[in-house]
Design goal:
By secondary structure, this protein is mainly alpha-helical. It has a domain of about 80 residues: Rossmann fold (3-Layer(aba) Sandwich), CATH 3.40.50. It has four helices and four strands. The strands form two sheets. The protein has a two-stranded parallel ribbon with strand order 1-2. Strands 3-4 form a two-stranded antiparallel sheet. α2 links the parallel β1 and β2. α1 packs across α2. Its main location: other.
Length: about 120
Amino acid sequence: MRSEGMRIVESVLPSLPKRPQVILSANDDMALGAIEALQSQGVKPGEILVTGFDAVPEALARVRDGWLAVTADQRPGFAVQTAMSQLVANVREKKAITGADYPPTLITKENLQQAERIGEAGN
């Protein structure tokens, strides 16, 4: 997917009459590919805002250095913990499994430390 994000930006950006203000990516991997293409075209961090989705460690590092404006943290650890807690309660206490709805958290420079996987993002 990263190569697809890179390919799209490399092929579309030069043909536009005006640079876009934002690139919306379906996931962080495509956003990281878009960022690589922007870097190769001399674009500086923040000149074109790039968004991602998944809050993978490399994307969190790009948020920190200003290349990625925002990513959505789906909190997979929280989802697994919630599912396991409900499953254990169902097996042990016959409690109904109710499921859980929780929105992703938008991660920016301002709240980067709230990302579930920030410890994996390196320095």
